[in-house]
Amino acid sequence: MVALFSYHARAGRKGFLVKLTTTLIVALSAATFAPAQTSTSSAPSPTAAANPNVRHVIGLETVKRNAIGKLTVHDSVLEFKAGTAGNKVPVSAIDAIFVGTETTQSGGTAGRVIKMAAPYESGKALTILMRTKVDILTVSFHDPDGAVHGAIFALPIGTAEPMRAQLVQAGAHSGAPEKLIQRQVQP
Questions:
Q1: If you ran DSSP here, which 8-state letter would residue 116 be given?
Q2: How many CB atoms lie within 10 A of CB 161?
Q3: Roughly how many angstroms between the first and final C-alpha of the chain, as a whole number?
Q4: 131 and 106 Cβ atoms separated by less than 8 Å
Q5: Longest C-alpha distance within the chain, in Å?
Q6: Cα atoms in the Cβ-side hemisphere of radius 13 Å centred on 154
Q7: pLDDT, tens digit, 9 for 90 and up, residues 31-62
């Protein structure tokens, strides 16, 4: 009977340790990824220097996909610079600018590993904690030969609209796609 009692006591401790480990993983993950959540407070409009963490999703020839860099508007040029790679688009060549918001999952590879390693499918709860909102800035432009291109950027929340305003103020077009098609078809 004593052996049976000690077996149940050890099994009870094991269950307690599993629950404690799960709770610690969730709490540490929440503490780790909580700074990734951004507030939507009405801060003054950021300047070009305040946008260092812009992600180039796709569209620029000389910059790799998902490169993190700085997006600026200066001297009638939209410039994206990521390390040694960079690309410049003349503002006069910009045909349309679109702004939107999207929810993405933060944490990268480490976040995916933590979700898979979490016991009892508690990784599904971590997904909720690892979500973050970003602004999406899509720029449609043409090159000197007249070919139409597009570039998509993911900016910190609340910074895409001021960037769009800077581009329009610098002389970029922000028309609807139907007007662009009609303008290109007419001689």
A1: H
A2: 13
A3: 97
A4: yes
A5: 97
A6: 16
A7: 444 444 444 444 444 444 446 689 999 999 99
Which residue's entry shows tokens 């688009």? 89
Tell how strand 54-58 and strand 67-74 pair up.
Answer: antiparallel
List of residues 6+ apart from 70 with CB closer than 8 A: 48, 49, 51, 52, 54, 80, 81, 82
Give this prediction's pTM: 0.63
Residues 6+ apart with CB under 8 A from 4: none
CATH architecture observed for domain 50-185:
Roll (2.30)
Low-confidence ranges of the chain (pLDDT < 50): 1-10, 24, 28, 30-50, 180
Cβ–Cβ < 8 Å for 150, 140: yes
Helix (H) or strand (E) holding 99: strand 94-105
Q: Which residue ranges make up each domain of the chain?
A: 50-185
